[in-house]
Amino acid sequence: MIEQGFMIPELQAEVTDPLDPSQTYYVDYRWQLEGGDVIGELYGRDKYELPEMMGGRDTLGVVIDERHRESRLTVPGTKVLRFSFRDVMDVERFVSLLELYGIPRGPARKMDE
After folding, report:
1. Residue 30 lies in a domain
2. Which residues, listed in sequence order, are joined to residue 7 by a DSSP beta bridge?
3. CB–CB of 1/94 below 8 Å?
4. Distance between CA 67 and CA 48 in Å, rounded?
5. Is residue 105 part of a domain?
6. 93: CB partners within 8 A, 6+ apart
7. Distance (Å, rounded) from C-alpha 92 to C-alpha 102?
8. Are 107 and 113 in contact (CB under 8 A)?
9. Does residue 19 contact residue 72 with C-beta atoms inside 8 Å?
């Protein structure tokens, strides 16, 4: 996303649960935009398959908890953009996803700039 000139998001951003302010969620990426926040979540299979990432839950439990979390994240109108490593590697597709969600774009730059 940097090389394609998109706005750099906040990484591992803290988001407070609007129904339980004692609960904090961490999201992979957050863009704070005038029209509302966009949360980016890079997902893979590991959290659904590896016991050390599942916290004692089965796959269904992980999915249910994830849906519950996402419903809280979107209460204030926040959009959630889910993408995979495969999406990132397909530059045209990834650019289309970021544009679809309204992530601002400027001139392209190299990673070492």
Report:
1. yes
2. none
3. yes
4. 13
5. no
6. 87
7. 15
8. no
9. yes
Q: Which residues pair with 43 in a beta bridge?
A: 84
Q: What length is written for the chain? A: 113
pLDDT 10s digits, 57-110: 888 888 898 899 899 999 888 999 999 999 999 999 999 999 999 999 976 566
Virtual torsion, Cα 59, 40, 67, 19, nearest 10 deg: 130
Q: Which residues pair with 15 in a beta bridge?
A: 25
As a whole number of angstroms, the distance between CA 16 and CA 18 comes to: 6
pLDDT average, residue stretch 12-40 = 94
- Tokens of residue 77, six digits: 């109108």
Lookup result for tokens 């704070």: 32
Structural domain including 48 reads: 10-100
Residue 1 lies in a domain: no
